[in-house]
Write a structure and sequence with these properties.
- By secondary structure, the chain is α/β, with parallel strands linked by helices.
- The chain folds into two domains: 5-56 and 178-241 and 338-378, FAD/NAD(P)-binding domain (3-Layer(bba) Sandwich); 105-171 and 243-335, D-Amino Acid Oxidase, subunit A, domain 2 (D-Amino Acid Oxidase, Chain A, domain 2).
- Helices cover 36% and strands 25% of the residues.
- It is built from eleven helices and 18 strands.
- The protein has helices at 5-12, 24-36, 67-76, 79-100, 102-105, 121-142, 155-158, 177-190, 291-294, 303-317, 360-378, and strands at 15-20, 42-45, 61-62, 112-116, 148-150, 165-169, 173-174, 194-196, 201-206, 211-215, 220-228, 244-253, 264-267, 272-277, 280-285, 325-335, 342-345, 350-354.
- α2 packs parallel to α8, α4 (79-100) packs across α6 and α4 (79-100) crosses α11.
Length: 379
């Protein structure tokens, strides 16, 4: 591919920072870099027409962990690690809201709920026993008492069938992730960040004093330093980074008159999740049906998961309500052996900010800033 003098000079000359990935982490890194050092020439490169991973393909939960998730985490991690991660998620959500504004991202604090079936009575009782302990720690983070509380009286209000208990999270909310990504994109472009879509980075080379990036269009990009913010796709560029891709499949219904649901809902230890979007129901999850198949970067749907999602909608979530599925899609998350994010240098001139653990909306703004701080140290 050939460029004119003008194109070469305007877009590709004297790049300071190359950010790979235009999702929530990459854009927040660019935002932080240009906000703190406006003279930097920053380019964000994205392989897709829109962010490829999960940033605008997720369910838009503004959450920080359900009771069963935190209790499970406490079995495998220290108290400081578990609540330290909760604090990072909470701070990340506040950063996101501050950066873009609640109206812009369509933020609503309608609460979150965890559902329990009769067969999960023991799990429910364990959760209830731990609520005072969890609430005590969360109050120091969120600043509100009794974040988690029982809400069995709302089971009939929501119209669920086969659900025996609900635990409410009063501090949980929801956002529109399409509006979030668009607003972030416009904000960083207004600051002078260059964003190139449909350009995939195939390899990154640290040359000691600069980096070279080869692309699928035959263009080689040169910059002083680079940040990889591709989350579930990270190992395609950085094979030694411990990130496992995890596909999340989602569907959304057509509008349902007089929909009873309002809020965000966690079901079956969080492996399923649903929410209202206006009068629609968005429902996703099911990767626990076949973990191995869902450890992929292929943006596809499987009959196994989609059939299960529809069955749960019919039997549990909307048992007495006719509905039609309007749209289905999938996104790729980044998981690992630990729930910690990976924000670290991988060479003298290349760093990464990846492995959101399915909590990109919550923690992505903070991780982007942390990645940018690493970059500033390398310049």
């Amino acid at each position: 591919m050939q460029f004119s003098f003008w194109e070469q000079d305007t877009y590709f000359s004297n790049l300071d920072v190359l950010v790979v990935g235009s999702g929530i982490v990459g854009l927040n890194a660019a935002l932080y870099l240009k906000s703190t050092q406006p003279t930097l020439k920053v380019m964000v490169v994205e392989r897709g027409l829109l962010p490829t991973g999960a940033s605008s393909k997720n369910a838009g939960f503004a959450c920080f962990g359900s009771p069963t998730e935190l209790i499970e985490d406490l079995i495998h991690h220290t108290e400081d690690d578990v609540f330290g991660l909760v604090e990072r998620r909470w701070k990340g959500l506040q950063r996101l809201r501050r950066n873009l504004g609640d109206i812009t991202i369509d933020y609503h604090n309608w609460g979150g709920y965890e559902l329990f079936e009769p067969a999960q009575q023991e799990l429910y009782e364990q959760s209830i026993a731990q609520l005072p302990y969890l609430n005590k720690h969360l109050q120091t983070i969120v600043g509100q008492p009794d974040i988690y509380r029982t809400a069995d009286e709302k089971i009939n209000t929501f119209g669920f069938k086969g659900i025996s208990h609900l635990i409410e999270s009063t501090a949980e909310g929801q956002i529109d992730t399409g509006k979030m990504i668009l607003a972030l994109t416009q904000k960083v472009q207004a600051l002078g960040v260059i964003i190139l879509n449909n350009l995939e980075i195939l390899q990154l080379h640290d040359e000691g004093t600069s980096i070279n990036a080869t692309t699928d269009k035959g263009v080689t990009l040169k910059a002083r330093t680079a940040l990889v913010a591709t989350n579930g796709f990270a190992r395609q560029l950085l094979p030694d980074v411990q990130v496992i891709p995890a596909r999340a499949q989602v569907l959304i219904t057509k509008p349902i008159p007089d929909l009873k649901l309002k809020g965000t809902f966690h079901y079956d230890k969080g492996y399923y999740y649903f929410r209202n979007i206006g009068q629609r129901v968005l429902f996703g999850g099911g990767r626990n049906l076949d973990f191995k198949t869902e450890e992929t970067t292929e943006m596809a749907l499987t009959e196994l998961v989609q059939t299960k999602l529809e069955a749960l909608l019919q039997q549990v979530i909307l048992p007495d309500t006719p509905f039609e599925v309007e749209q289905r899609w999938s996104g790729i998350m980044g998981m690992g052996p630990a729930k910690t994010t990976i924000v670290q240098p991988v060479s003298e001139r290349i760093s990464c900010a990846v492995r959101m653990g399915g909590m990109g909306v919550a923690i992505g703004s903070l991780v982007g800033e942390e990645g940018a701080e690493l970059i500033l140290q390398q310049l």
